[in-house]
Amino acid sequence: MLDAFSRAVVSADSKTACIGGDEISALKGFIAEGNKRLDAVNAVASNASCIVSDSIAGMICENTGLIQAGGNCYPNRRMAACLRDGEIVLRYITYALLAGDASVLEDRCLNGLKETYAALGVPTTSTARAVGIMKACAVAHITGTNSEAQAGAKFKKNETAQGDCSALAAEAASYFDRAVAAIS
Fold it and tell me: Total domain count for the chain?
């Protein structure tokens, strides 16, 4: 796994040069946005259980056959495996968001996931849809646009750093998009 600092070192080393102008500027930006990044990770991680369960529930609402006898979320052990897999994907996305680098997500979570799901008979379209719903939920928590109307009794508004979090939301969204692409 590479973080922003390790990536700058590897990049400079591959050019056999010292870390200079562009790398230093990028690292300064990474540090300046550090509290926002931590707040974004906290917003997703502290709501992970709700994000995953709501996403799986949303996927099932769109395809109720998944919980019928013979469906991929039936019986309870398959539903538990689905929830577990959703939590794993979300956890690695938070790692990538914290580091500012997708290598940990790619290497430890997504590499070979499609083939594993194909071998197990897991419907990738439903899985990709659940990840898409997770993306919408996580972005809403990062940007602070989640609302009581959307969450109902589970509503929890995190205190976040002041300022524009759209770049972090877009970065997080890109990690979810990577997961969907790896599954599809």
Answer: 2
Which tens digits make up the pLDDT trace of 154-179? 656 655 555 688 999 999 999 999 99
Q: What is the pLDDT of residues 105-144, one digit of tens each?
A: 999 999 999 999 999 999 999 999 999 999 999 999 999 8
Contacts of 131 (CB under 8 A, 6+ apart): 55, 86, 89, 176, 179, 180, 183
In the structure encoding, which two tokens stand for residue 77, read together? 């052990």
Same-domain status, 81 and 101: yes
Residue 22: is it exposed, middle or buried by C-beta count within 10 angstroms (0-12/13-18/19+)?
A: exposed
Question: Contact 101/30 with Cβ under 8 angstroms?
Answer: no
Task: Give the pTM.
Answer: 0.84
What is the domain extent for residue 17? 1-32
